[in-house]
Write a structure and sequence with these properties.
By secondary structure, the chain is mainly beta. It is built from 9 helices and 47 strands. The strands form 10 sheets. The chain has a 22-stranded antiparallel barrel. The chain has a 5-stranded mixed beta sheet with strand order 10-17-18-13-14. Strands 3-2-6-7 form a 4-stranded antiparallel beta sheet, with no helix packed on it. The N terminus is likely disordered.
């Protein structure tokens, strides 16, 4: 017997074919109830900004044909459900686009209030400090190189550095204070050549071809997301094609990427990509003293077992090698880098499975994952393996994670999410390091092993009142582990949070959030051992780092295409690891290559970050899609009186003060698109060099780096930096393939400014000059030459993307 839904869907196909002119792009989709995954029949679906529409059938399916190529959004409405505008999807002539649209049940009567749908979707749990970034903004972001870490720098609160790094610095917090999720699976970092213990690196791991949406939380973290103090970044991937195999190749500024997707049977789809860099060839031609090479892969498999059960598997991995280019040894800058930079091998992976079971009024989610990072660094005297070893560092850290979530929606509009999590982590380091600390040579030679059991629980309830005019959400979270007695008590990490959003008038909201958040110190800190093989940080009774957030603001949605918001924020940090080596909070560290947190500390650091953000977004201002953001931010650490008695609060390394970004792009006839991004970054503070201490022959022979004058810690400030990035795209939409050729120019007007200071040795022939040869050996100093780096360079690139 032929089902009514089959007949209805066939009629819709004929109707769509008659309504639209010609067989061009095709969108096929499904509308379903977000509460229980059941289809929503007779929903109205329209191409946003046009009069083209369709209706879902009894299985929630719908179809558009004959669409012009380009990015489109879908507006969806149905009786009893909240209106919805989808994230953009790209329509081409060479393949069908599939999209699934979740609708939330409405808990108000039709006559009570009318709330217009907006592409800037709001969240009841996080009414403040949440930005949604779509694939169009990721793929074609000027200067972004299709790298999500760079793309988010256009949004309020997110700082960028003039140096070629991807540190995620949000609202004055350090790069170690962030958490990342890929389709619900937690991943340890986003970057190649990652700074162990933090999140930074020069190049992103995530393939932007897979992303459909990114949620950036700079506060108001949901209770099911732990281990974050400054931001949570949730990334969601597209699904593979359900009908046929597809292939995509891309040649960019630094790598070659190959992507494939398609079906595996009737219920399963897959995505797979692999990328390989060719930076080492470019750097060799440019005579740079280091030659980086990276490789990564990414996989997603999703199986819709039946209407009530689905399973998703994700995996990504990276292998990075940084070799020294010993032939590039002519200039002072080249010699300096070769003098301190070790060779480095690093590999990492993360994989996990997400099983979701839908019930009548909610769903259960089970997440099991594992991640691992292996980091090796070696350094020899004069970069010769036959000479003495200065550094031989081998580290391996791994985590196995489990998380269960129960999401239930009740007839009165209450949404409840609760769950538990468990993790088992191991960390091992075999470290030999001949270095110089506190004016004395120090030799480390130890093996450190650490195993941790971590557990936690969380719950959050959200509900709207007075016909959706007031939305309230309250949550709590508790985490613990077996590192020491203090950390093992869940109540010591009691983490409440409350949000409220009040609709003042049509499109105008008053929002508020406060919460307390905890994060475990890095494994490099927990597992640290001193030169006497003593686990001093465990003896010092380390605790979780605590941050209290207060956020309030207004949000105005004047129409369907624009948004304006103003937010003020205040964060106060407690129990931050405080270095016993240099009396500096680790809150100011982590933006350099290598290892973060491997030093003796106490949990006595305090800090604060506060400021205000302004955001204006318009999807069609004179044809431009614009993002304008400004952030006023102060980031400070409280000093220890014995270290800096005259300064109670000192700026951290992330104290930019002013961040201004203007990003826009516009499409033109003939499938041309032009985009631009102009950014202004306030100068960050820095600490002057102690030239005399740096010139000590043991310090320079062992480290090749400067010693900072900590009595003047962060007393100076770099000049502000600004640059303009421009990108031009041209696309050809053919029957069998889509071709995209683009040109991207970073720092178009070639703005440069003075960067950090560094020292190089003065030589007499091939021998370094000693300034005081008559002094005892321990007091002898090299004669040093001061130099200053230059920040900012014109960087043009071209790229080709082919989709079959």
């Amino acid at each position: 017997m032929i089902r009514r839904s089959t007949i209805c869907f066939s009629l819709l196909m004929l109707l769509s074919a008659n309504m639209l002119h010609g067989q061009k792009g095709i969108i096929e989709g499904r509308v379903y109830n977000a509460k229980n995954n059941e289809p929503v029949e007779f929903a109205s679906i329209a191409i946003f900004g046009t009069s083209i529409g369709s209706i879902s059938d009894l299985d929630g399916n719908f179809l558009f044909t004959g669409l012009e190529p380009g990015f489109v959004e879908l507006r969806v409405s149905s009786v009893g459900f909240e209106n919805y505008i989808s994230e953009p999807v790209q329509v081409t002539n060479s393949g069908k686009v599939f999209i699934e649209i979740p609708l939330e049940e409405a808990n108000y009567e039709l006559e009570e209030i009318v709330i217009k749908a907006s592409p800037f979707r709001r969240d009841k749990e996080s009414p403040v400090s949440l930005q949604r970034i779509n694939i169009e903004e990721i793929e074609k972001a000027p200067g972004g190189n299709r790298d999500i870490s760079k793309v988010i720098q256009s949004y309020p609160g997110v700082a960028s550095t003039p140096a070629q790094r991807n540190d995620v610095i949000v609202r004055g917090g350090g790069p170690s204070e962030n958490a990342f999720y890929l389709d619900g699976v937690e991943i340890p970092n986003l970057n190649h050549f990652a700074t162990q213990g933090a999140s930074g690196g020069p190049v992103g791991i995530i393939n932007a071809d897979f992303l459909r949406e990114v949620n950036l939380y700079s506060g108001a973290f949901p209770a099911n997301r732990g281990e974050a103090l400054s931001s949570v970044i949730e990334m969601y991937q597209v699904d593979g094609n359900k009908e046929k195999f597809r292939f995509k190749g891309a040649v960019g500024a630094s790598d070659l990427a190959l992507t494939a997707d398609g079906p595996i049977g009737d219920k399963t789809t897959y995505l797979f990509s692999v990328r390989r860099s060719y930076l080492q060839f470019l750097f060799s031609v440019l005579e740079l003293p280091f030659l980086p090479t990276y490789t990564d892969y990414q996989v997603k498999v999703r199986s819709r077992l039946n209407e009530k059960n689905e399973l998703t598997f994700v995996r990504l991995g990276a292998y990075d090698v940084n070799a020294l280019n010993l032939d590039a040894n002519e200039t002072n800058a080249q010699k300096y880098i070769l003098g301190y930079l070790p060779e480095n091998d690093q590999w990492s992976y993360a994989f996990g499975g997400v099983y979701k079971h839908f019930r009548e009024k909610g769903f259960d989610t089970f997440v099991v994952s594992r991640n691992r990072l292996n980091n090796v660094a070696r350094k020899y005297v004069d970069n010769d393996e036959n000479n003495d070893t200065l550094l031989n560092y081998v580290s391996d850290e791994a985590e196995i994670k489990f998380r269960y979530e129960n999401v239930s929606r009740f007839d009165n509009g209450l949404r409840l999410n609760f769950g538990v999590n468990y993790e088992y982590a191991t960390f091992k380091t075999d470290n030999y390091n001949l270095t110089y600390i506190n004016n004395a040579p120090v030799e480390f030679d130890y093996v450190s092993e650490l195993s941790l059991h971590k557990w936690g629980t969380f719950a959050q309830a959200s509900k709207e009142f007075f016909g959706q005019r007031l939305a309230l959400s309250a949550g709590l979270r508790m985490d613990a582990n077996n590192y020491n007695d203090h950390m093992s008590n869940l109540l010591n990490q009691f983490s409440p949070r409350v949000s409220a959003s009040l609709l003042l008038t049509t499109g105008l909201y008053l929002n508020f959030n406060t919460g307390r958040y905890f994060q475990l110190p890095a494994y490099t800190t927990l597992g640290y051992m001193d030169e006497n093989d003593v686990a001093v940080n465990k003896q010092n009774d380390l605790t979780y780092i605590q941050a209290d957030h207060y956020v309030a603001g207004i949000e105005f949605l004047p129409d369907e295409k624009s948004k304006f918001s103003v937010e003020g924020f205040y964060k106060y940090y407690n129990s931050y690891p405080f270095s016993l080596n240099d009396s500096i909070s680790l809150a100011s560290k982590g933006a350099d290559f290598g290892i973060y947190g491997s030093e003796p500390v106490t949990s006595t650091g305090e800090g604060r970050a506060y400021g205000a953000e302004v955001l204006y977004r318009n999807k069609d201002l004179f044809g431009f899609n614009l993002i304008l953001s400004y952030t006023l931010v102060r980031s400070e650490s409280k000093t220890q009186k014995e270290a800096l008695p005259d300064r109670e609060w000192i700026p951290t390394t992330w104290d930019n003060r002013h961040l201004l970004n203007l990003t826009g792009f516009r499409s033109f006839k003939g499938n041309w698109q032009i985009g631009f991004k102009w950014r202004f970054v306030g100068g960050v503070p820095y600490t002057p060099i102690d030239v005399e201490a740096s010139a000590n022959i043991f310090n320079w022979d062992y480290t090749g780096r400067e010693i900072l004058d900590l009595t003047r810690y962060n007393s100076e400030r770099f000049s502000p930096f600004h640059q303009l990035d421009v990108r031009v795209d041209k696309e050809w939409f053919l029957d069998k393939l889509t071709l995209n050729v683009y040109a991207d120019v970073q720092n178009l007007y070639n703005y440069t400014t003075a960067g950090s200071e560094f020292l190089v040795q003065e030589f007499d022939g091939e021998d370094p000059v000693i300034a005081n040869p008559q002094a005892p050996l321990a007091e002898q100093r090299y004669r040093m030459i001061p130099e200053t780096t230059s920040v900012g360079t014109l960087l043009p690139s071209i790229g080709i993307i082919i989709k079959f």
